[in-house]
Amino acid sequence: MRILIAEDDDISRATLSALLKRNGHEVVETASGAEAWEELQKADAPRLAIIDLMMPEMDGLEVVRRVRALEGGKTFYLIILTAMDEAHDIIIGLDAGADDYLPKPYNTGILGARINVGRRMIEMQEQEALHQLQLNQAQKMESVGRLAGGVAHDFNNKLAVIIGYVELILLKMAADSPFIDNLKEIRKAAESSADLTRQLLAFARKQAVTPKVLELNETVAGMLNMLRRLIGEDIDLSWQPGTDLLQIKMDPSQIDQILANLCVNARDAINGVGRITIGTEAATFDSEYCDLNAEFIPGDYVLLVVSDTGCGMDTETQTNIFEPFFTTKKVGQGTGLGLASVYGAVKQNNGFIKVYSELGHGTTFRIYLPRYQGKDGDIHREDRLQSIVRGSETILLVEDDAAILAVTTMLLEDFGYRVLAANTPGEAIQLAREHSGEINLLMTDVIMPEMNGRDLARNMLAIYPGMKRLFMSGYTADIIASQGMLDAGVNFIQKPFAMQTLAVKVREVLDK
């Protein structure tokens, strides 16, 4: 390690320097307190210093005091030089802020022991400082995520109104109207905005996790523009989609999150101009292969590959990259949570991830996602239900946003349902008590003034025990989960929703 010596006696300094160099240390020699102080203020200053107490210009005590007053000064390990174990020197040195003392003349064994203790203490202090920095960064990201969650709720509510009214107009407009294409563009822009919100929330790990049957190529292709903006113009992004891929069942936002994290890591590993390649393939593993690779399970998979031409990683780094808070980036440039979240998302979906890398030869991540094994594997379930999405049941709709309440009421009525619309939980309870017939479905926002959707549903069940429930929200997953609305078996629809999505979900809940 690098060690600074501050000693005005030439012979003593040379002797100590020779002993340290003999043991493999790099030595920075200074002949006065002023020189030592100047060196210790540098960004690359040695973290361990051996300082004589009595020196011209500035004595060792003053050097120690000044170092301790520095920001980050506590990470230095300071050893004072004393003459023949004099108790007075030791006491005043330690009182000034020194960590240890070294008596003259030098004893090789004592010197080695003091240096070893100092090295261990410095490592512990730096590790503690790094963990604190990572904790602060994680807390900052949590705050950003909470802010994003609140913004997403309001933004999603506005998008729900835009999409709803556009689809109502499209539904009632003549097929030959010159405004059809314009309205479709408005809907497309609103839906793209909803996708953007979902992608932003993926960075903050606050998105609602809703697995869907999907084509991996389509999902990746929809992310490419955002990824290109993320990695910058100096890095070429190559997309190599495979053919005849099987479908997978996974939340698209998790694919977004995986790609974003891997591409950011790849960007940071590339010094200047380089290339990131994203590809997909079909993969099948038999029992013989899985016998040799214990983490794999026989079956058909869809392979997502992300490779880069960056600096690569050594073997030790590869063994730790998926551990939370592990990072090779400079202090303040990463939390060490990106690859941990990638690993978590892959494992949550019963997949596997492999990394291949060599120093100077780039890195490749290979992610295996199990094929969807539904009865027919049809990705467009809504298309199969188009003929049965209408109904005539009575729905109690509760939504505190007046615009969403109005447009959702019109959509449901257009599907053939009878709608009792309420702007507050109190109004909903009153409508339910005054209604003489049956109410088949309660469709309610999750978070509202007066009462949340869960408690409203409990009140409704006391009046209509057989009532089905469907919860909706523009809030993000963590906020909804805190209200108990994402438990297994709970019917939930995320705002903003398209007309067909709403029709399918309502019919699905009523037919359960």
Task: Give the helices and strands, then pairings.
Elements: E1 2-6, H1 10-22, E2 26-30, H2 33-40, E3 48-52, H3 60-69, E4 77-83, H4 87-96, E5 100-104, H5 108-172, H6 180-203, E6 212-214, H7 216-221, H8 224-231, E7 235-240, E8 248-250, H9 252-269, E9 274-285, H10 287-292, E10 299-308, H11 315-320, H12 338-348, E11 352-357, E12 363-370, H13 381-384, E13 394-398, H14 402-414, E14 418-422, H15 425-434, E15 441-445, H16 453-463, E16 468-473, H17 477-482, E17 492-494, H18 499-510
Parallel strand pairs: 1-2, 1-3, 3-4, 4-5, 7-9, 13-14, 13-15, 15-16, 16-17
Antiparallel strand pairs: 6-8, 9-10, 10-12, 11-12
Helix pairs in contact: 2-3, 5-6, 5-14, 6-9, 9-12, 15-16
What descriptors fit this protein?
19% strand; single chain; Rossmann fold; 5-stranded mixed sheet; alpha/beta; 512 residues; Heat Shock Protein 90
Number of domains: 3
Q: What value does the average pLDDT take?
A: 83
Look up the CATH topology of the largest domain.
Heat Shock Protein 90
**Which stretches are poorly predicted, pLDDT < 50 over at least 5 residues?**
376-388
Which structural class matches the secondary elements? alpha/beta
